[in-house]
Recover the amino acids of this structure.
């Protein structure tokens, strides 16, 4: 399993955890249940940490994208030093996708923070994949 598949799998596991805990909590709240998952300290902590770490992952992807565009290599037989031909438009492409998804999200779904974390994770994973495949094209190493 390559880096992209592993990272995507881990993000999807985290999103599944957020969805299940969020659903169980909201179900109990909506039905005035005497037993509520939100009362469990461990599950509440896991839920909060998952959301925080998903946001941190998104910020890390943005930092990686900025660093990737500034990276240079020593020229070799099969690489250029700057890799500019593989970096052109990556930041713009990620920003365009993020803006489009945010516009659709706010107009169609609203500003619900519970669903916002899924959009954040989706943009983060897509940005990560773009960077990894840009690296693959430039350096010739396989991040799959």
């Amino acid at each position: 399993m390559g880096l992209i598949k592993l990272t995507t799998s881990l993000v999807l596991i985290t999103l599944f955890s957020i969805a299940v805990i969020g659903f169980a909590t909201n179900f109990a709240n909506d039905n005035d249940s005497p037993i509520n998952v939100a009362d469990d300290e461990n599950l509440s902590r896991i839920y909060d940490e998952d959301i925080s770490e998903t946001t941190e992952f998104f910020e890390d992807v943005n930092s990686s994208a900025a660093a990737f565009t500034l990276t240079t290599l020593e020229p070799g037989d099969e690489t250029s030093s700057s890799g500019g031909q593989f970096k052109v438009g990556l930041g713009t492409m990620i920003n365009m996708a993020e803006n489009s998804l945010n516009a659709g999200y706010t107009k169609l779904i609203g500003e619900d923070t519970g669903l916002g974390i899924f959009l954040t994770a989706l943009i983060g994973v897509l940005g990560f994949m773009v960077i990894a495949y840009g690296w693959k094209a430039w350096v010739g190493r396989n991040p799959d």
About this structure: Residues 41-70 form the longest helix (30 residues). The mean pLDDT is 75.
